[in-house]
Description:
Layout (H helix, E strand, L loop, with lengths): L11 E9 L4 E9 L2 E7 L2 E8 L4 H11 L9 E9 L2 E8 L1 H9 L39 H9 L4 H6 L3 E6 L5 E7 L2 H14 L8 E4 L5 H10 L3 E4 L5 H10 L2 E7 L2 E6 L6
Parallel strand pairs: 3-6, 9-10, 10-11
Antiparallel strand pairs: 1-2, 3-4, 5-6, 7-8, 7-9, 11-12
Helix pairs in contact: 1-5, 5-6, 6-7
Amino acid sequence: MLDHPYPASGAHRSYGVERRGTDSAILGEDAVAEEAPVALVYNGFSHAVMLATPQDLEDFALGFTLSEGIAASARELHDIDVVEHALGCEVRMALAGERFAAMRERRRTLAGRTGCGLCGIESLAQLQRPLPPARLADTAIQPGALERAQAELAALQPLFQLTGAVHAAAWCRRDGSVALVREDVGRHNALDKLIGAIATRGCGFDDGFVLMTSRASYEIVQKAATVGIAAIAALSAPTGMAVRLAEAAGVTLVGFARGHRHSVYTHPQRMH
């Protein structure tokens, strides 16, 4: 049992550390990334509890709602309120009546790993859900865009630079300029926060691409495809399930985006 409550707010905290080398030990302090239980509460009903970095939680709640298909647009979610508790925090929201009824009907009980992939589904049949077709002609990634996006993102991750312990998801324009960045200890959470931030600003999901500092897993592709994102690039590798889903959903999937090199796994026609 923990002898202190979870931090309901604050993305990092300083802890004492003993730094050891071959012949020395030095006492100091390190900034450590925080994670806290975050309950997503719709119309008074707790739908999921996730472990997440306790910042940008309004974006997280909206992004999760959209990427899980609970709502189809930001207009169906209202009155997002973050309430802190000793053991974590709740994000309370009002969901449109018909959407709330549908959510209760197909409820998934998500248990608390950090941004866990597919956690809590009750059968293999729940693994897949209908995805909108990506619009093939609407997104053309310009030459040099991936390299530019990587260079810009490196300077836009303050929490990672401080702690070395979080993932980032970036929304990039077609020329590779970075428009938005969100960070979290969980890569799925970082993407949900980014999706929420894009939706809050009223931007479309088909006029750019996502750059992830993590690997590209099945659920990363599923979340992106659900909201209509047509292209995903990851600094690390994709999984086989992610490649197959991206191919079926019409999503361009890029892995090993490092400098001027990258590997295009699906739908290369968007890469100019």
